[in-house]
Write a structure and sequence with these properties.
- It is a single chain.
- Helices cover about 35% and strands about 25% of the residues.
- The chain is of the alpha/beta class.
- It has two domains: about 260 residues, Zn peptidases (Aminopeptidase, 3-Layer(aba) Sandwich); about 110 residues, Alpha-Beta Plaits.
- The protein has a six-stranded mixed beta sheet with strand order 1-2-6-3-7-14, with helices on both faces. The chain has a four-stranded antiparallel beta sheet with strand order 4-5-16-15. A four-stranded antiparallel beta sheet has the order 10-11-9-12.
- A hairpin with a 7-residue loop joins strand 1 and strand 2.
- The two termini are about 25 Å apart.
């Protein structure tokens, strides 16, 4: 049996070197060329440790890569779900160079999520080297537009995840090392309001004030909040009007919905679609809808997290769970009913920030956790 903690502790410096190598590839979501350069490099790394790599072309964004080990083995695969793209534009490295200081590696993309890609590749390398790959397939799905909402890849993610027995989402852990066992779902909406213009001095009574209608609607929308139970409905933007002396004939507002339970998303979505104008003659038009469902902490998640905790205990540490009001690709898979664990990457902080960083000492433990889950996971127990 492999001593995972010892193996990855001894490989800590090598993992940092690999992370530096990946972080040196600038790969903003908006540059297909740069994402594809990283994708091909990572594909080569997968092939070097026995992976069979499929490239799925995308026109508007980087190509998706899926690496497979034991592709023809029986049983459902474990699917590692990561992304190649970052939020950082080309040229960022000149102002934010990769640097190591006091046990922390700084640089654009190191925590979101090139550190995670490093750990997953190292975990598979360990199993491949020790002839310890599990008797079922392992899939590694490299998304290319996660940072812009997975618009061009979400259907692919759902298709591949729908055939998996477990999805390990490689978003970073919390700074304390907890994994994500719940995430809120997201809805995004636009409300367009049509009134009627009139001179605000000569004949204000002839106008229909779209901003006043927007105010009425904002209060009705705000009343849908249930913060105690994790549901927030926020009016986030409001625009309208044409001149200081004209009754506003139009307005537009945006709303952000976050919710813990699928039933809450359905409740709010239905209520938004039932909104009616308050001012006589005003018209409203709702656009948008549910973007992705929640990753709920339900009975299945309790079993999945419990098994992960048992495997962490075999490594000698206690695994904690946490959650997030932000979404990930794990929302797609969890909402499908696929057993999902999120936040499986290294610990760090500063996602999308100038001080983006990975805690180097977290890397061996997190790689060991990925390796033991890949090797010893019991599908039947969840």
């Amino acid at each position: 049996m492999v001593d995972y903690m010892q193996y990855f502790t001894e490989r800590q410096a090598s993992m940092v070197a690999t992370l530096r190598e990946l972080a040196a590839f600038e790969s903003p979501s908006t540059s297909k060329t740069h994402v594809d350069l990283l994708g091909e490099h990572v594909a080569g790394m997968c092939r070097a440790i026995g992976g069979e790599v499929t490239t799925i072309p995308r026109e508007a964004v980087g190509d998706v890569r899926v690496a497979q080990w034991n592709a023809n083995a029986p049983g459902k695969p474990i699917m590692l779900l990561g992304h190649l793209d970052t939020v950082w534009p080309v040229g960022t490295l000149a102002d934010m160079p990769i640097r190591e200081e006091d046990g922390i590696l700084y640089g654009p993309g190191v925590i979101d999520m090139k550190g995670s890609l490093t750990l997953a590749l190292e975990a598979i390398r360990c199993l491949h080297t020790h002839d310890a790959l599990p008797p079922h397939p392992i899939w590694f799905f490299f998304n290319s537009d996660e940072e812009t909402g997975s618009v061009y890849t979400r259907d692919l993610i759902k298709d591949w995840a729908g055939r998996a027995g477990l999805v390990l989402v490689l978003e970073p852990a919390t700074p304390e090392g907890a994994i994500k066992i719940w995430r809120k779902g997201i809805g995004r909406y636009t409300l367009r309001i049509t009134g009627r213009a009139a001179h605000s001095g000569f004949a204000p009574e002839e106008g229909i004030n779209a901003l006043i209608e927007a105010a009425h609607q904002s209060l009705a929308i705000h009343a849908l909040n249930d913060l105690r139970n994790g549901t927030s409905v926020s009016v986030t933007q409001l625009s309208g009007g044409m001149a200081i002396n004209v009754i506003p004939p139009s307005a537009e507002m945006t709303m952000d919905l976050r919710y813990l339970k699928a039933s809450e998303g359905e409740r709010v979505d239905a209520a938004l679609r039932d909104l009616v104008p308050v001012l006589p003659g005003a018209q409203i038009e709702l656009g948008g809808g549910i973007d992705r469902g929640p990753m709920e902490y339900d009975a299945q998640m309790e079993r999945v997290f419990g098994q992960a905790q048992q495997l962490a205990a075999k490594l000698g540490f206690e695994l904690h769970g946490d959650g997030s009001g932000g979404a990930s690709d794990g929302n797609f898979t969890a909402a499908m009913g696929i057993p999902t664990l999120d936040g499986m990457g290294p610990a760090g902080r500063g996602l999308h920030a100038a001080d983006e960083q990975v805690f180097i000492t977290s890397m061996p433990r997190r790689a060991a956790l990925l390796a033991i889950i890949l090797a010893e996971w019991d599908m039947a127990a969840v």
